[in-house]
Amino acid sequence: MLTHLGYSQAIPSILDDKVDSLQLASSKTFQDIDSSLKYFNNDSTLLRNIEKRASSKKYILGQAYALIKLGDIYYNSSSFSKSISLYQEALSLATEVNNIEFRVYSLNMISKVYRQNEAVKSALDYSQDALELAETVSKPNKGLKRNIAIALNSIGGIYQMLEQYNLAIEKYERSIVFEKELDNKLGLAKNHQSQGECYESQGKLESALKNFRKSLVYYEIIDSNRGKIICNYNIAHVYVHLGKINQAITILQSNLQKAISLGDQKIITTIYINLGWALIRFGDFDNAEINLESGLALANKNSLNAEIAEANKFLSELWIKRDDYEKGMRYFKESRKYEERITKSLNIRYVNDMILRYESQIRANQLERLAEENETVRLKLKKNRTMLIIIGIFLILLIGILYILYRQSQLNADKKLLTLEQSMLRSQMNPHFLFNSLNSIKLYIINNEKKNAVHYLNKFSKLVRKILEASSQREISLAEELETVELYMNIENIRFSNEINFTVHIKDNIDTHLIKIPSLILQPFLENALWHGLSSKDGAKNIDLEVKKGKNGFIEIIITDNGVGRDAAQKIKDGKVLKRKSVGIDITKERLANFSRDYENFFHVDIIDKFDDNTTPIGTQIVIYIPTI
């Protein structure tokens, strides 16, 4: 263990090694440098040392990185003037070595600080500079794409604040394209949330609701409690507009407790105010007053001017409904006072004019450029008609080639889908299963158990028919799928001497005939539970299949066995001379992924190892999430 003196002597040596290794490797991307130095990002003293050592070694990008991270520390402590100075210094260094990624990153951070200070024009200028600079790179790397998405989101946020909702939505849409490419679910959640707010402000409530729900799905995936709470109260806000007051109140009351647990004062304040507003619409004036006064007290305590204005506005409405016009007017005046503080109407009008001029100039430049190109083409065509014919032939060939490529792509996709379906069918009707099933039926015949032989032969033929029928369909009802797997389990149970206890539970009054799922997706999981979980287990052997309602419109299909667990099953498998290769689950997962892409829904499979209190494996649980919206 290092003493304090030893630690203080070791750190400079470590920093020297880090800076030297980065410089030697010619690290020029933000991600490369961050992966090596990110452990020092929260220590301003170490970052200062890195900046000095990088400066002494003429490693300018390392110096710029340290300045940016120092700026982040000052920004997070609300020392905005200091953070801007550091970001500006980093920008100068990045400009000196003409590193576009670091320049764009610095411009985005400067814009972020100006926006925090409500310097709208400056924030917009820097975000637009960042976007224009980034778009000069024809093939941006991952870091640059991330910064383009940030710049677009920032510009969209400023347009939204200035009530230029169509322009804001356009920027958010472009940001979503990059976030999807980067698979950044947090960025997707934020963009859809902001789009929902824009649509709600325009009165397009269904579009708003659609975007809030998309945002909620992404927040669920990344398990962001704060994001889920914000999305839920946004959905409740739309429900109030739609007249779904009871649903709105239920959502707000549930999320108020979650917000209190989270401890975010701004969110708690917002929910109190929205709950008060919903209760006014419901006619429960007493509880509306309690919630609005609670929200107003928190807003005053935390100097949240926008929330103070909104709480006073709703309290004014409440007292007018109670026929107390004196109180209503007093709250109304207080609301107007705070609204005037935060409006800054002259600045907003000026920036609005600037936005319109900026967008108009862009469109004018585009039209002018197109006009010049058209004139050039016209003159060339006039001078040489042959060129027109060549261009026409070239275009026809190009379209033909593109069509052929498109058809080839479609054929490849169809071929892949067909291969998957064939693989799926083979996994359902593999020779081992067919041979062993027929062998079991033969044994009944040899033992003169004709009744059992006929019974299981009927089940076997019915199973084969259902598998063949289902394999020709893209999707089937959950009821049909459950009937198929029950037949499969009955036949497999012969080989286990009827030791398997297989049960199916349908909960929450779910109508399995109305739920559509990809055909033949459950059998591979049951087969895996049988042959890897239960075949090597002594004692009771149970498999439970449960269907219930999950969160956010999902149906959960849960398959639970009390087998030996995945680790033990793998060890047993590794010790066998003849290894049974299981590919059904991999094929099923790939089919679900293809099904998700085609239908723009999220299918998901979780595999959970179960343990008792002594961490001894007691089985495996499979959870399949099926979307219904």
- Helical fraction equals over 70%
CATH superfamily of the domain at 413-627: Histidine kinase-like ATPase, C-terminal domain
Major β-sheet strand ordering: 2-4-5-7-6
Count of strand segments: 7
- Tally the helices: 25
Q: What's the gyration radius in Å? A: 32 Å
- CATH class designation of the domain at 413-627: Alpha Beta
Q: Under the CATH scheme, which architecture of the domain at 413-627 would be assigned?
A: 2-Layer Sandwich
Shape: globular
What structural category characterises the helix and strand content? alpha+beta
In the CATH hierarchy, the third-tier topology of the domain at 413-627 is known as Heat Shock Protein 90
User: Which residues form runs of ≥5 with pLDDT under 50?
Assistant: 1-10, 424-429, 577-581
What can you see in these coordinates?
- The two termini are 57 Å apart.
- This protein has 629 residues and is of the alpha+beta class.
- The protein contains 25 helices and 7 strands.
- The protein has a 5-stranded mixed beta sheet, with helices on one face.
- The chain is globular and about 90 Å long.
- Helix 6 (100-116) runs antiparallel to helix 7 and helix 20 (431-446) runs antiparallel to helix 21.
- The model is unreliable at 1-10, 424-429 and 577-581 (pLDDT under 50).
- Among the domains are: 244-341, Alpha Horseshoe (Serine Threonine Protein Phosphatase 5, Tetratricopeptide repeat), CATH 1.25.40; 413-627, Heat Shock Protein 90.
- Helices cover 74% and strands 8% of the residues.
